[in-house]
Amino acid sequence: MARIRAIADEEKVAKRRTILDAAMKLYQDKSYELPSVSAIAKESGLAKGTVYLYFKTKEEIFIVLLEEGFTLICEGISAAITDADECDPGFISKLVHSYTDMIRNYHGFLTLAAMTNSVLEQNLDLNIALTFKKKIAYHLQILGAQLESKLPRLQKGAGAKMLLHIYSLTVGLWQTLNCPKKIRPMMGDEVLGIFNVEYFKELRGVLMMCVFAFSEVDNKAKN
Amino acid sequence: MARIRAIADEEKVAKRRTILDAAMKLYQDKSYELPSVSAIAKESGLAKGTVYLYFKTKEEIFIVLLEEGFTLICEGISAAITDADECDPGFISKLVHSYTDMIRNYHGFLTLAAMTNSVLEQNLDLNIALTFKKKIAYHLQILGAQLESKLPRLQKGAGAKMLLHIYSLTVGLWQTLNCPKKIRPMMGDEVLGIFNVEYFKELRGVLMMCVFAFSEVDNKAKN
Amino acid sequence: MARIRAIADEEKVAKRRTILDAAMKLYQDKSYELPSVSAIAKESGLAKGTVYLYFKTKEEIFIVLLEEGFTLICEGISAAITDADECDPGFISKLVHSYTDMIRNYHGFLTLAAMTNSVLEQNLDLNIALTFKKKIAYHLQILGAQLESKLPRLQKGAGAKMLLHIYSLTVGLWQTLNCPKKIRPMMGDEVLGIFNVEYFKELRGVLMMCVFAFSEVDNKAKN
Amino acid sequence: MARIRAIADEEKVAKRRTILDAAMKLYQDKSYELPSVSAIAKESGLAKGTVYLYFKTKEEIFIVLLEEGFTLICEGISAAITDADECDPGFISKLVHSYTDMIRNYHGFLTLAAMTNSVLEQNLDLNIALTFKKKIAYHLQILGAQLESKLPRLQKGAGAKMLLHIYSLTVGLWQTLNCPKKIRPMMGDEVLGIFNVEYFKELRGVLMMCVFAFSEVDNKAKN
DNA sequence: AATGAATGAGCTTTCATTCAT
DNA sequence: AATGAATGAAAGCTCATTCAT
Question: Which domains does chain A have, with CATH numbers?
């Protein structure tokens, strides 16, 4: 096996990356079932024990991947907000688009997000779980504040809350619309028409509606 | 002969019920972790093998429970719609309340719904999975149509779609806000404030907003 | 694999026996290291899971073997006591001989006994450990009482106690004199002369002495 | 140059000591389970690999500790023999007391001694194992001779042998009476009465008896 | 139809030891 | 001489599912 030692911190980070990437690859290849640590090790070209040197449990690997995805998406939106002109009537639409695009590009993010509670958090070190939650909260906070600064109709705190709701909807809708690969060919049935929509298009539709609603309601509350 | 068959069928249904009830009880008792088939069999007073005569896999048991819950909730809302007066300005609010109450009363429904994709559908017979999807679609259709008849501003098909979105949000929000028991005591941290809200209150809040948005947008689209 | 079902109780007992025998064989073959459950299963012609159907932990298997050996030996001595004539001046000597013979015939008993505390009791279900202790105590009691009836010089309770001491010495001496196979060829060194004795002969020698001492002291205490 | 070597040797000895002390501390703290090499290294303030520069295997560390304990105890008794007056009728009793006191003071000695065969000697370099045996033999010899000089009734070689038997009994009795902490609270049961004795008191009792027997028998044999 | 004994792949995890640095 | 990253065999155990009875 690759008995290459990661001595410097950056090498360690690189090896961690190797494991994370291998885990993600297998996760995607295995149609979004959590791969075994054994498989991850093999894919990484490392020994099983080495993986446990970098992550305490299997779930930790995936919680990190999820958190990375979340961070990435948040940063993307943040950039999009900065770039966009809030006076542009298409401001919201642009943001929504960049949001859905970010998610689309991080393959597996949605599946991962969907199993956060039911699977990942179950077998997670207490502190890791908490740290994860805090990071999510932090990102929502920061991004929410940024939004508030651009959309003055949003009251203090409403930005983060709105994002929380958007995120919830994103994950929930995905869970409702997504279905295992093997039954996809049989989804043609007319009865199932309601599920035969393109997820991202649908998501954008609902988001536009909700963001609009948010602004309105918030606005009214102000008056 | 037919008589005997009927009796036999009744017995079958009864035994299925026994298993389902036992599974649900254990699921609730074990704080919403899927119990083992062995435990379900014991709780049912049946042998392990017998359980497999009635359900092809463990997941099938829970998908049936989920579907039953879904049906129950839909029927409840249907009744609520029938009872309510759409001219009453509190019409929407009443519906939303009865919706959240129904869900609250079906303990474990949200957890079950949340694991639908990531866990349940993975190890499910193709036909079972499909049938499940169809039942969900059917209920959404029926209930959607009923809604449309009461809220004329809703276009054809918009009722079902709205319900789909509501359901998605319900499940997604639950996943975001819910957290494992063991980390609940540590949620006091200020950073986590955004997660420290009462789920059902929060849900009602968002739903009110969304339903409102839906009507508006839909209305506008009409004009 | 041998998918032969043990349905009747006697069949179950037989299968348990199969496992116990396989475990003992491996234990002896592997120069008295505890074999893995996996190996025991293979040797038994059973699946690993099946072994766990009959024994909760690996240690339980060996504690049962130890207890069986203990019981066997006690029964043998009991018979020897019954058969012997306490007026015969060689009474004690005969008993000691039958004791050492019993132990010699139960290969591995000593090694097993020697690891009772340091290994076996560590990973043992509380109740199993306790039951084991009770059985040992029970046998000591019974056999002790029998001895007292034959050797009137022994006070009440002194029989069991004497046996406890004899057993302790038996195990302790074995631990001191026994040595791993691989270093046996090098035991010729003169310095090691004290260890180069035949265990059973040595044991008999010490026991004779001790039993004698016991009687004396006890006798004196009486006067 | 020689000077430097001497210093280097001193350092080596010192480092060995550090490791041994750390190992002993952890062993005692962990209620007499063998600690991992990793833990020993950490406790020593050394790297894992460094430990292996000083000891070939983990077991070697503990065999050295056991041997040190043995030496200590022997030296203690030797001193006690020197100090005591063999004409004092309490001579034996005093020796026995100082013996049990020495053992009591070397915490963990008995546990270590008890696992010598079943655990330690298994994974030990041949030479190390042999050296260990030789040291034990040597100590028994020396101490035995000293005893013989004080107790003229002891024939040549009988001293060492007696000590061997005493040591065996000490370890064996400890194994029989000692029990894991977790089952200690449940030892109250009447059946287990025979095990509910104070180890050191019991040991002293048996030893007094045996030593007495030894002298007698030996004496008789002489005549 | 019902049983429950048997299966065995599968899991995570530990840790003594090695060896590149 | 010292380090500690990497190894990987080995372990115990679970449990969904099968199938002989």
Answer: 1-55 (1.10.10.60), 57-222 (1.10.357.10)
